[in-house]
Amino acid sequence: MLFPAEAEARGSHGEGNTDEEVSADVPDGDVEESGAGVPLAEDWKPSSVALSFVTDGDSVDVDFSCGTYAAVEGDGPPRWRRTPFSVDGLDLRRDKGPERLSVGGVSVEIGSRWRDFQGDSLVTVHVRVLTESTGDDRHDIPRTLFQVHLAAAPPAGAEIREYDTTRSIDTDPEAAELRLRYRNRKVYAVGHGMAADWEFAEGRCAKVFLEPVPAFVVPAVETTGFDEGTAEAEALELGHLQQIDKDPEAVLRSLDAFLEAFAGWASLQMERAEAFSDDRAVAVRIAGRSQDAVDRMREGIDLLRAPGGEDLRTAFSLGMAAMRLQMRQASINRGKPEEQVPEPRWRPFQLGFLLVSLASSVDEGHKDRDLVDLIWFPTGGGKTEAYLGLAAIEVFRRRLAHGTAGGGTAVITRYTLRLLTSQQFQRAAALVCAMERLRATDDRAKGMAPFSIGLWVGNDVTPGTRVDAREALKRLQKAARPEEANEFQVESCPWCLTPLVPRLRSDKPEDYGMRLDGVDVVLHCVDASCDFAGELPLAVVDEVLYKEPPTILLATVDKFARLQFKTEAGRLLGLGTTFRQPSMIIQDELHLLSGPLGTTVAVFDAMIQLLLSRSNSSPKIVASTATIRASEEQVEGLYGREVALYPPSGLDDDRTFFSRPVESGEGRLYIGLMPQSVSQPSAVIAAVTPMVEMPEALAARAPSAASRDAYWTLVMYHNSLRELGRTGTLVVDDVNGRLEPRAERLGFPLRPVRAVLELTSRRGAEELPNDLRALTVRADESPEAVDVVLSSNMLSVGIDIPRLALMLMVGQPKTTAEYIQATSRVGRGDTKGVVVTLFRSGRARDRSHFETFRGYHEALYRSVEPTSVTPWSLASRERSLAGALVALLRQSFTALAPNEAAGRFDLKDGRIHEAVDRLVERFLGYVTRADGLEASETRSAVWSLLRDWDRRAGQARQSGEPLYYQRTKKDQAAALLKKFGQPGEGWLVADSMRSVEPNVAVEVQEPQEEVHHGEDQA
Predict the structure, then answer these.
(1) Neighbour tally for 364: CB within 10 Å
(2) Distance between CA atoms of residues 10 and 12, nearest Å
(3) What is each CA distance from 117 to 151, 530, 960, in whole angstroms?
């Protein structure tokens, strides 16, 4: 819509304009200055739109069409008659002024502005309404243009060139690589007030035009495969790979074929890179990473081939057998008869990752041991299975190589959110169950210590002690709805998926998958036919985890802040045990370790890496992400290590040897809306209403297109809790108010919005599992299916509900990474996702994304922003260094471990001073590798803290009173540390890595009756 011009906004067309005049970019007297100035469509009611593009011609042919409406006289409701208007082939030239047209009595100007641009012309074609507003919205309707369409095409012999703005500027080497990789994803136009789009003919851009509702399908990514019957295809079969200890030649032959297939592609990439002219160095750098991956894969295969590699081949075989068992069981759980379950297969990128990472994971002295292997693959592509397969090999290798000492915690898998940790726990637990099945049935694994998995996420989610666990069990057995009272976080048997608690309270203890066994609460499957009816290899109670460290530990990054308060937590790092220390750390969703959280985590990570190197061997670090930029800087800041991205990218956009966009072009549909002249609440209501009607519309017009459940649940994604709070009321009241009259008019069955679910950080830890369970309820199976989900950015961090396929983004998220992560939560199942983004016209960033909608979505990953971590900056040191330092010393020196032992710290004792000095120097080594510029300041800060500790410990010894680390009782006066809100002297430390500021309680009272004080005026 283009509205009539406001009188005061007409510039030279109006009187009394006091704004400072902005000079044009052309000499005085030129036509452009006098007649073709383009006003920006940023007003509340825009009266103009424009389209910018680059052409090598001196003229363009413009097509314009619209409609006007006139009131129809008569009784009854208001009626309007549309009058169409169109003009085609309007010739606009560099030396020609704007054209003025009369459209249904409305005066309209169509003009162009020409500027020289790298030997061509940058042209902006505009349309604006010259007729002035009456000041009355109803009377302005006949003066308004509706359904505006504007298109421009070059004349014969000319063409529209790439609209290149800043993409030619390489701010860093990675920017140069992105420019080269996406060189064929060209932008040909930019809109002003509307979105720009373009059409191709015979391989050239034939026309550019404005689009009021832009849409673009981002193709799904598929993993590449091999021809059936080939050796490389056979290498993907887990049943084949697990024969490596029995028939190594056959398996190694297929692995060689797999490697050669990848090596051939890598060589072709290098040949192409050498042929680049100006960007040859950039292209060779990209292709070189594939060559590096080939060399590392070959090294892994050679290690499996080595004459003395019997233990590794056995470990590899057992790891493949465990993954095969798990995948087969997953198919059975999905309803496949056991005899019809297909042979489990790796995706090519998964097998490639195992081979790339194998040598540096199993060889503690390998040159790439300190290299962080980062799996970079789109969401839903199978990253979790890839790193779990590597973890399985490492767990078995430790048991075979070191016997009993290889027990204890072998792998630490860390997540950033408790919700994400609990979800991934189910998948990792299924692998551990498979390993336990092998221990019971496979002679090679018999006699090994039991395998187990532990969940370490926080005591407001899981019980902290055995006493807490027993109390939680009592509450569970008394609860009317046990599913909502399950504090053990495990909802179903990870092996057979049988629910562990009944939906309604039961008097039968055997209906519950938790039972009291002595002082422990044991988890077990309630299905007597399940292999784990006796006991599941799961532990969720902190006290039990410390006493019997699990084989695989799943934890939130926050939990490691407990090392400064709980010395027994060091047993999870192999400290104070007879077991070897954990040899692998897996960090999921690495892109979330940025900003304040990543900065805090990095300080504690330096301490953790130092503690894990007690045996003179550093752990292997594996990470995964779907969206990352500047990974070298981020990993260096987090871990003080170099990084290798896998799979290595190719020379063409998002294509690698292992993945490519689907050839059919099917994928997630993105739609953009930017309403003008309406408030945000009205825009939300207008967008939500038809989206709620989608299931009924599909059922009426295309019954076979999708199931009733396909687009039933609408996910509304918000960038802030404030916006989300406003939406809740709108959905229940205003949207329902619109649905009824629309249902009558359109002839659809009325579908009111009843079940609205909020998925935000405001939900308690005990509520979130119930919320996720509610989201899995299908509309074609139950009337209780959720209608609308009001979500914050919690949704973007790994929630996987396959039935969700419809999303409304209320405003553009702050980063492209968040946009990709959030929108990829819909359309993960069989139904293709639909994402509608509601842009705000008053926000410059939203407007920019809308006007460049197609160019942005054609190469989403090109726009991912770099993230930053600054762990050794002044602010970070003040917040986190004290806690990390205390944790390091308490976990390193037994004498300093007890809570009352802080007073034993004495730098005047030569042995203590020397030992502390060595430890601090090793700690500062991590600081130097991560951020050398801050090493000197960090050294000063560390020793300042240590001298202050020494001073307070000396005072405590002189007074004969103990110095505690933390106050466990109110009468304990002297403590080295204090938490937020605690009085007295002490270093302020966080109990969690997210606790960076004290909370402020605000009490809101109801308005009181007004009371007047003073004399009675009566």
Answers:
(1) 15
(2) 6
(3) 21, 72, 81
Cβ burial, residue 999 (10 Å; 0-12/13-18/19+): exposed
SS (H, E, C) 374-420: EEECCCCCCHHHHHHHHHHHHHHHHHHHHHHHHCCCCEEEEECCHHH
How distant, in Å, are the alpha carbons of 330, 658, 839 from that of 497?
A: 9, 32, 42
Q: What do you get for the CA distance between the two ends of the chain, in Å?
A: 60
**Tell me, what amino acid is at 844?**
A
How far apart are the C-alpha atoms of 247 and 251, rounded to whole Å?
7
pTM of the model: 0.88
Instruction: Please report where in the chains the tokens 């179903």 appear, as a residue.
Output: 492
Residue 9 CB coordination number (10 Å):
16
Average pLDDT, the chain: 88
Distance of alpha carbon 348 from alpha carbon 351, whole angstroms: 5
DSSP character at residue 820: H
More confident residue, 452 or 720: 452
Q: Which of 700, 672, 717 is nearest to 837 (CA)?
A: 672
Cβ distance 672 to 853 under 8 Å? yes
Q: How far is CA 607 from the centre of its chain?
A: 27
Residue with tokens 């059936």: 228
385 phi and psi angles, rounded to 5 deg:
-65, -35
Is the predicted pLDDT of residue 39 greater than 70, yes or no?
Answer: no
- How far apart CA 909 and CA 819 sit, in angstroms, is 56
From CA 823, how far away is CA 837, in angstroms rounded?
10
User: Among candidates 83, 13, 81, which has minimal Cα distance to 48?
Assistant: 13
Q: How far apart are CA 732 and CA 752, in angstroms?
A: 9
Contact 884, 603 (CB under 8 A): yes
- The closest of 649, 654, 646, 659 to 297, measured between CA atoms, is 646
**With b meaning 16 or more CB within 10 Å and e meaning fewer, what string describes 511-532?**
bbbbeeeeebbbbbbbbeebbb
Query: How many C-beta atoms surround the C-beta of residue 210 within 10 A?
Result: 25
What phi and psi values does residue 251 have, to the nearest 5 degrees?
-70, -45
Burial 247-286, CB ≥16 within 10 A → b, else e: ebeebbebbbbbbebbbebbeebbeebeebeebeebbebb
Beta bridge partners of 80: 71
- For 207, phi and psi rounded to 5 degrees? -160, 145
DSSP codes, 877-938: IIIIIHHHHHHHHHHH-GGG-STTBGGG--TTSHHHHHHHHHHHHHHHHHHHHH-GGGHHHH
Name the residue with higher pLDDT: 574 or 594.
574
HSE (CB half, 13 Å, CA atoms) of 633? 14
Q: If you search the block for the tokens 């980062």, which residue do you land on?
A: 374
CA distance 507 to 328: 35
pLDDT at position 78 over 90: no
- Other Cβ atoms within 10 Å of 339 Cβ, number: 5
Query: Which amino acid type is present at position 554?
Result: L
Question: CA–CA separation, 279 vs 684, rounded Å?
Answer: 46
**Contact in structure between 287 and 403 (CB atoms under 8 Å):** no
| 368 close to 534: Cβ distance less than 8 angstroms | no
Distance CA 473, CA 514 (A): 7
**Alpha helices for 442-485 (secondary structure H):** 466-478
Q: How far apart are CA 437 and CA 526, in angstroms?
A: 18
Q: Judge whether 811 and 843 are in contact, CB under 8 Å.
A: yes
Crossing angle for the helix pair 595-612 and 631-639, nearest 10 degrees? 50
147: three-class secondary structure by DSSP: strand
Tens of pLDDT, residue by residue over 527-567, are 999 999 999 999 999 999 999 999 999 998 888 888 998 99
807 forms beta bridges with 715, 835
